[in-house]
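Researcher: Structure prediction, please.
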Amino acid sequence: MAFGGKGTQIDISGDLRGKMEKQKPLLEIKNVKKGFFVGKEKVEVLKGVNLEVKQGEFVVLIGPSGCGKSTLLNVILGLERPDEGEVRAFGKNVYAIEEEKRPSFRLKNFGVIYQQPNWIKALNVIENVAFPLSLIGTTHKKAMQKAKSILYLFKADKFEKYNPMELSGGEQQKLCVCRALITNPPMILADEPTGNLDSVSAEDLMYDLKLLNGDSKKTMVMVTHNPDYERYATKFVYMEDGVIKNVKIKEKVSEEITDIQGDNGLISRGSFWAKQWFFVKLSLKSFRRYKMRALLTSGGVALSIGFITFLISLSYGFQKLTTEGIKNMEAFQMLDVETGKSKVVSIDQGNIDKISNTFGVEEVYPMLSLAGFFGTEGDGFDGVVYGRSMESFRIQLPRIVAGQSFSSENAEEVI
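Model: Predicted structure follows.
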């Protein structure tokens, strides 16, 4: 039997090897490789990781920062698809599961304890612990009952009405364990759970995890920097430079194989409406807890939407006003074309046809002009009289500077 990548050393007795090979692994990691691009350069984080985790084992995975421990956990959880290799958990290829179904698979089979607790601040302790059950539609009453029971088991029921941010780091991590166990998953993954704790709180947490592993038969995979936690492990794994360098079997696990497939007793599949009602209550609770912030945020969003709508309307109005103004400007509608005193170019019918065919020209109308002296009763002035066809008045009406317009009825008076 072999664990790890090339060059892995295994310290395991022959008798123990024979017993352990009878048990099928809950988790199999086969030649997993994963890299990330930093700019144009790809950095290889996992370089062919191989590992097996059997039911009931307490696997402690240590290694220096940046060796790929946390990335490996994300790959196991189905959060980071490997570039190469295969991850099988509970008999299934994790990345063969449809992406939208993967969260349900993860919620059912894994409990996760992070270094940072990531509380929902609008919820109190018992509501935060019950949160995973609410995600799968368990009724509020049942979720609260199960959360209360698990808090009592860890002697944390006295904090159920507290805001989790009011508690110490050790108490918060103990509550993280409760939240990870609320759905009764067969495997617990812990990413540096003692990283922010003092030595006493860290030992208390490790004691609780070991009890869960020994008494409740929970399979544990824990990532840590602390080599002292080797004493809690049944399997001790050392990782460096993206590969597993050494796997040491510390203690045999029970060969009794229990049914770990299907619903595990604590998970109750609730209705769609139970989930929706939970999220409505969560929103209302968050609003009540942070009234001023919610009002300011809502007001800011409303004002922003109103102001953007006003700007769009104003812009549209200006655009329409400008377009209509340009459209009605005579200077943009009509252009006078003259030859002046040139004898080379004359405006004849041929030139009129050329102008008519010019892009943007709709109509061409002839215009006659007559210069002369205008006088009456010994007084007068020089001027020009223009004559236009009636059709041209459709695009430019004449402006009467003085006097009044005339018609055929008073034409003799004008003449």
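Model: The first strand starts at residue 9 and ends at 11.
Researcher: Thanks, that helps.
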